[in-house]
Specification:
The complex is a heterodimer of chains A (about 350) and B (about 160). By secondary structure, chain A is mainly alpha-helical. Helix content of chain A is about 65%, strand content about 0%. Chain A starts with 10 loop residues before the first helix and ends with a helix. Chain B contains 4 helices and 5 strands. Classes of the chains: A mainly alpha (about 350), B alpha+beta (about 160). Chains A and B meet through helix 1 and helix 12 of A and helix 1 of B.
Chain lengths: ~350, ~160
């Protein structure tokens, strides 16, 4: 991260930079998703205006919401397993923060240039399952338990297409390093024409589609929101949570949406790279985060568009979609990619 | 396959978003802009006290029993010299509890003497639920907001009634 600067930063300065960067990377997408997509786009798609009172066009509504949650009483059920109950939101949030570590935002703008970065990201994304299971079990509430079991079944089922969709990209890029995947796209060419590099969305479109469906389910966004199905389970594993702890789950959900969207942008849309500039130039250390943010917003636009448009699936439909449709397609995609990789 | 329908669904939401951004929303920003109530809107029930004979039909038909009527009989002086004094009904209390009312309008329908009317006013929420009990005087004040009856359908022979104000 620091190598291109004229002077070396000491360890504590790097640490401060990383903490600030991590917080920004988690909170900025979460905030912009909730305001732009959840408040505004959702309203527009339902022919209403959404929040308009707090700040210009309701832009400060989010602060008002946070203030509201901060004021609320922190309730813990009497029969709850208090320790586990209190710990669960942090576990969910930690998995989001850990995923940010390997996300590259520029040639030198990354927290850790980890060789098996995508592997780490997909592995730590599963930690949230443990947090959700903890929340459901410790709440001493049958709705919470049902919701968390549904969430666990769903996340495990959709972890597979998620991983398998990424394998195609990894085969093509010949590396597990996310930075390497970005460079493979930036320096690639489409049938000898290298004008825009080779974003893997063209060659791995099936993988991209699978990845989008899988992260939609991983994020438990509608139409895959059975774990919090409010008509059946109150709010699933969130039922007993209130105040700041609920807010933490809430931030975790949308921050994870941001990280997964950024991951999709890195894997399929070329990450921080825009055509026309040398990918090794220092400009990308400034431009990269903005480009990545733009691409992330584009990907998440589709996530939230699907979220707003489709009704919830049934539990068995969800499992059938994962095991009988997505995973076979993903396996075929891997085989085809491998064969084509060898042929060309 | 469900794909064509799913793509169509995405089109509906996208079209609605573009329409909302370019032409404005279907909703209005309520406290700043007031929506025009639809014709024959059921906002609140007004009482024209002179027409009420305290016959209790409305109170008995009310599914929620949210109408409270108390009255007494009194003898009015005879109309002609030497006649019998006439018996009349005085309305002491006529309350509608809007915290119970479900706006079915049966009381308005059932009133044989045209004493109850719908009005489209809707801004009468109260901080205290007990204040939603509207008494005779308050129900009488709503009379000012009763709109004229709409025209009957074309070719109707019936004489159009007027709202007693």
């Amino acid at each position: 991260m620091i190598s291109t600067f004229a002077y070396e930063l000491s360890y504590w300065q790097q640490t401060v930079l990383r903490v600030v960067g991590g917080l920004v990377a988690v909170l900025l997408p979460a905030g912009s998703f909730v305001y732009l997509y959840l408040f505004k786009m959702m309203s527009f798609m339902q022919s209403r205006l959404g929040p308009m009172e707090a700040g210009p066009y309701g832009s400060l509504q989010l602060l008002a919401e946070v203030g509201k949650f901060a004021q609320k009483e922190d309730l813990i059920p009497e029969r709850a397993d208090r320790m586990v109950f209190k710990l669960a939101p942090y576990v969910v949030l930690v998995s989001t923060f850990l995923m940010v570590i390997v996300l590259p935002a520029g040639p030198d703008m990354l927290m850790s240039n980890f060789d098996v970065g995508i592997y780490l990201a997909l592995a730590v994304s599963s930690i949230s399952v443990i947090g959700i299971l903890m929340a459901g079990w410790s709440s001493a509430n049958k709705y919470s338990l049902l919701g968390s079991l549904r969430a666990t079944g769903q996340l495990i089922a959709y972890e597979l297409p998620l991983v398998l969709a990424v394998v195609g990209v990894v085969i093509q890029a010949e590396t597990l390093n996310l930075q390497g995947i970005v460079f493979a796209q930036a320096e690639g060419d489409i049938f000898g024409w290298g004008g825009i590099g080779n974003p893997f969305i063209f060659t791995q479109f099936i993988g991209f589609a699978l990845f989008m469906v899988a992260i939609q389910a991983e994020l438990t966004q509608p139409p895959f929101d059975m774990p919090v199905a409010e008509s059946e389970l109150v709010t699933g594993y969130l039922t007993e949570y209130s105040g700041m702890r609920f807010l933490m789950f809430f931030i975790g959900e949308f921050a994870t949406a941001g990280v997964f969207s950024a991951m999709a942008a890195v894997l399929f849309l070329g990450g921080w790279y825009v055509p026309g500039i040398d990918p090794n130039s220092d400009w990308f250390n400034l431009l990269g985060p903005a480009v990545l943010f733009g691409k992330m917003m584009l990907v998440s636009f589709f996530i939230f568009w699907f979220r707003i448009s489709y009704p919830r699936l049934r539990e068995d439909q969800l499992q059938r979609l994962a095991w009988k449709v997505l995973i076979p397609i993903a396996l075929v995609n891997i085989v085809a990619t491998a064969v084509l990789k060898v042929v060309f | 396959m469900a794909m064509p329908g799913m793509i169509k669904g995405l089109g509906v939401t996208m079209k609605t978003m573009v329409r909302t951004i370019t032409q404005g929303a279907d909703t209005v920003q309520y406290p700043n802009v007031k929506e025009e109530p639809t014709p024959r809107a059921r906002g609140v029930i007004a009482l024209h006290e002179e027409n009420c004979t305290s016959c209790m039909l409305c109170a008995r038909e009310c599914p929620d029993w949210c109408i409270y009527i108390e009255g007494h009989k009194y003898l009015a002086p005879p109309r002609r010299e030497g006649g019998k004094p006439r018996q009349k009904n005085a309305l002491d209390r006529f309350d509608i509890d809007y915290s119970l009312c479900m706006y079915c309008g049966i009381c308005v329908e059932v009133c044989p003497f045209e004493a109850l009317f719908w009005t489209p006013e809707y801004e009468y929420s109260e901080p205290k639920i007990a204040d939603l009990l509207h008494d005779k005087a308050k129900l009488g004040q709503w009379m000012e907001t009763v709109p004229d009856f709409e025209d009957y359908e074309a070719g109707s022979e019936a004489k159009k009634l007027t709202v007693p104000k």
